[in-house]
Task: structure prediction
Amino acid sequence: MNAPSAGAGLRVLHLGKFYPPASGGMEAHVQTLARAQAALGAQVEVLCANHAADGAGTSHEFQGRSPTCETWDGPVRVTRLGRLASVARMDAMPDLPRMLGRALSRGVDIVHLHTPNPTWVLALDVARRLPPVFITHHSDVIRQRVAGALFKPFEALLYARARRVLATSEAYVSGSPLLRAFRGKVRALPLGLDLAPYLHPCAAAREAEAHWRAQAAGAPLWLMVGRLVYYKGLFTALEALRRVPGRLVVVGQGPLEAEARRRARALGVADRVTWAGYLPPDSLVGALHAATALWFCGNARSEAYGLSQVEAMASGLPVLNTAIPHSGVAWVSLHEQTGLTVPVGDAEALAAAARRLLEEPGLAQRLGREARERAVAEFRHDVMAWRSLSLYSEALGRPAPVMAPDVALLRLTGSV
Result:
C-alpha cells in the first residue's frame, strides 16, 4: 500500500550556518530535518557556509579561505558557500547574493532559517522579495552581550517579517525577550533525530561498546558529549568526579580543552578522565550503550535543548541534567522519569545524583527504560519532519498533511 507523501510538491530552502561533517547540534538538526522532509516527498535544498578550506574535518573554527561547492546529501542539494573571513561569528561569503538568487530562481515555497545566524539574518533583511520565511530559534545570544545588542534591531526586523518562528520547546519561550515579542507567531517544533542507530546498534557500534566497557574495567562510566565551551559545564563535571567512583569520558573538541585538562590535574582526577575528542558515529553509539549515565551539565541558556540527551535516551541511558532557567534542557529529559535533574553549577548535587544511580536498586534501569520510550514517542526524526510540514501548511493556509507520523516511520524505514 502506497501512502500519500506529506511533503509532495513542497519546495523548502534551509539556511544554516554549516552542515555536516561540520560538528554541532544546529548542524546535525538541519541535516536531519532536511533529509526527513525529503523522505516525506518535499524538494529540499540547503545553503550554508563551507566550514573547511579542504572540505575535511569537523571543526567550523575559521582556518582560512574556503571555496564554494555544491554536493548532494542523498536527495538534498547542499551548497556550501566559500568563506573569505569570519569576525565575531559573522562569515564573509562573497558568493552569498548570487547563490541565494540562484536557489530562489529554482522555485521555493518556504525559506527556513536557523538562528542565531547573523550573516543570513542580514542577507534576508536586505532581500526585497522572499517566499514565506520560517525561523527556527535555536538559542538566544547569551554571552556576546555587546554584539547581541548591536544586532538586535536587525534580528527583530526579520522576525517581524517571518511567517512563523519555531521554538525548540515551549519551555524556552518564556525566558526569551525576542520570542516573547513575537509570541503570536511562535510555535514549538521539538528537535528530533534518526533514532535507528541508537535503538538498533550495528556490529561496529557493538564492537565499540565492548571497547568502552573494557576501558571502564567494571567501574562506572560517565559520559559527556559536546563542544568544549563555557556553557557545557565541564568544570562542574570534573569537580563532581572527585566525589564519585568511575571514569569520565569527554567526547568533543573546543577552546576550553587545555584549561580543562589543567583543572583535572589540579583536582586530582586526571587519571580518571578520557579526552576522546571527536568520535565517529558508531564509536559514539558504542560509548552511549556502555556508559552508566550521560552527564549534561549546561550552565547557561545558550544550552537550549541538548540533542545529545536524545541520543542517550534512545540508547536507554539515564541522563543527569541541569535545571537551567527558561531552557528546554530539563524538558527533554524529565526529572525522576528519564533521568535526574540537579541545580546549575552544583557539583555536589551532580555527584549525589550519580551515586543514586549506583546505590538505589533498579533506578538506573527504570530511568533508562523510560528514557528510551520518551525518545521514541517524542523525538523521532519522522515525527519532527511531519510536524514541520504541518506547521508550513497551517501558516500557508493549505490542507494539513494527511500522513500520520506512524505511517511516515514505515516509509522512512522502507516498509511501505
